[in-house]
Amino acid sequence: MAAKSQPNIPKAKSLDGVTNDRTASQGQWGRAWEVDWFSLASVIFLLLFAPFIVYYFIMACDQYSCALTGPVVDIVTGHARLSDIWAKTPPITRKAAQLYTLWVTFQVLLYTSLPDFCHKFLPGYVGGIQEGAVTPAGVVNKYQINGLQAWLLTHLLWFANAHLLSWFSPTIIFDNWIPLLWCANILGYAVSTFAMVKGYFFPTSARDCKFTGNFFYNYMMGIEFNPRIGKWFDFKLFFNGRPGIVAWTLINLSFAAKQRELHSHVTNAMVLVNVLQAIYVIDFFWNETWYLKTIDICHDHFGWYLGWGDCVWLPYLYTLQVRRVCTWCTTPCSCPPRTPWASCCWAWWATTSSGWPTTRRTCSAARMGAASSGAGSPRSSSAPTHPPMGRGTTASCWCRASGAWPATSTTSAT
């Protein structure tokens, strides 16, 4: 398909002080300019079926005790019809809408109105005002890194309510789980549609917008690179790192509270899944500054893929384990046999991920040295200063006599 013509991109000064022509690199770096038929078919498939996949998993857990083949078997054998399954699905409620609105509003306030103070007393933690990676158009955005602070305050309030204030039941998320799903879908589609309209009519940085001429691909993968409202509200960082990920551990805690309410105890399996997933979430927020240089921020544009995915896919599919444990694994037991394996997997992931900042600094320093000495090939000089990097992936850094070829993620968007 023919891509929409792009405005001429002027030469921009990179962070290392070397002036490069961004026109060539912008055509190769980041989201696709043109869409082949396979990519288009994949996008349409995801737009059509991803919401149903989420619904199917949640419905199976709610009506069939997480037996994923249960609905299919019942329909094939005639024991149930689609209308019967849908009739048993709880609808959206006023309480769920109010709860979800309050939740998102609270996270917006924590994100925009409370500057980070954790970096002032936590050794090794990097927060506050930080710079992101240079965009294809040469823009360097600044971010208020306060995710760890938002997570801590949210969970402090949660535990204060559970043990002292009693404003709401700790099982409130479980009790409104499916009605909240409809609220999350509404927000996901609303923010994705707004981001697309904004990209066409009032983008934050028009030079970083990409148009393919295909509506479905633009909606799915996004047009704007870093859509913002005001100076600090960045859509990509907020939706990647606030409503879904902060809620992740709250969802786990709510399901643990429900298990205790139903069975008068919390199983070791429930404790394990809460602890391991909490470690992952805390690690994410501890390294939020580093996250600014990963593929999500410095490669992906903001569209339905991130808007709906962060609101619906992340909190509902990433918590399937705790949903199953809540109602299925209810017998107290000793340490689960997979505990050492799960711990080793997390340790391996953390170790490989921790090498990324060093890799980036080493490659960047080598390339800067080559540029200052006048050495360098056309290919290396046109490479993006901050190529996309994904968490937990592996890559290589080729250091050549003419300079370092920056490491790029093995995962790239089409």
From TrEMBL:
<dbReference type="GO" id="GO:0006695">
    <property type="term" value="P:cholesterol biosynthetic process"/>
</dbReference>
<keyword id="KW-0521">NADP</keyword>
<feature type="compositionally biased region" description="Low complexity">
    <location>
        <begin position="369"/>
        <end position="384"/>
    </location>
</feature>
<feature type="region of interest" description="Disordered">
    <location>
        <begin position="369"/>
        <end position="390"/>
    </location>
</feature>
<keyword id="KW-0472">Membrane</keyword>
<dbReference type="InterPro" id="IPR018083">
    <property type="entry name" value="Sterol_reductase_CS"/>
</dbReference>
<feature type="transmembrane region" description="Helical">
    <location>
        <begin position="150"/>
        <end position="170"/>
    </location>
</feature>
<keyword id="KW-1207">Sterol metabolism</keyword>
<keyword id="KW-0756">Sterol biosynthesis</keyword>
<keyword id="KW-0560">Oxidoreductase</keyword>
<comment type="function">
    <text>Catalyzes the reduction of the C14-unsaturated bond of lanosterol, as part of the metabolic pathway leading to cholesterol biosynthesis.</text>
</comment>
<dbReference type="InterPro" id="IPR001171">
    <property type="entry name" value="ERG24_DHCR-like"/>
</dbReference>
<feature type="transmembrane region" description="Helical">
    <location>
        <begin position="176"/>
        <end position="197"/>
    </location>
</feature>
<keyword id="KW-0152">Cholesterol biosynthesis</keyword>
<keyword id="KW-0812">Transmembrane</keyword>
<keyword id="KW-0153">Cholesterol metabolism</keyword>
<dbReference type="GO" id="GO:0047598">
    <property type="term" value="F:7-dehydrocholesterol reductase activity"/>
</dbReference>
<keyword id="KW-1133">Transmembrane helix</keyword>
<dbReference type="GO" id="GO:0050613">
    <property type="term" value="F:Delta14-sterol reductase activity"/>
</dbReference>
<dbReference type="GO" id="GO:0005789">
    <property type="term" value="C:endoplasmic reticulum membrane"/>
</dbReference>
<keyword id="KW-0443">Lipid metabolism</keyword>
<keyword id="KW-0256">Endoplasmic reticulum</keyword>
<comment type="pathway">
    <text>Steroid biosynthesis; cholesterol biosynthesis.</text>
</comment>
<feature type="transmembrane region" description="Helical">
    <location>
        <begin position="37"/>
        <end position="58"/>
    </location>
</feature>
<keyword id="KW-0752">Steroid biosynthesis</keyword>
<feature type="region of interest" description="Disordered">
    <location>
        <begin position="1"/>
        <end position="21"/>
    </location>
</feature>
<dbReference type="Pfam" id="PF01222">
    <property type="entry name" value="ERG4_ERG24"/>
</dbReference>
<comment type="function">
    <text>Catalyzes the last step of the cholesterol synthesis pathway, which transforms cholesta-5,7-dien-3beta-ol (7-dehydrocholesterol,7-DHC) into cholesterol by reducing the C7-C8 double bond of its sterol core. Can also metabolize cholesta-5,7,24-trien-3beta-ol (7-dehydrodemosterol, 7-DHD) to desmosterol, which is then metabolized by the Delta(24)-sterol reductase (DHCR24) to cholesterol.</text>
</comment>
<keyword id="KW-0753">Steroid metabolism</keyword>
<protein>
    <recommendedName>
        <fullName>7-dehydrocholesterol reductase</fullName>
        <ecNumber>1.3.1.21</ecNumber>
        <ecNumber>1.3.1.70</ecNumber>
    </recommendedName>
</protein>
<comment type="similarity">
    <text>Belongs to the ERG4/ERG24 family.</text>
</comment>
<keyword id="KW-0444">Lipid biosynthesis</keyword>
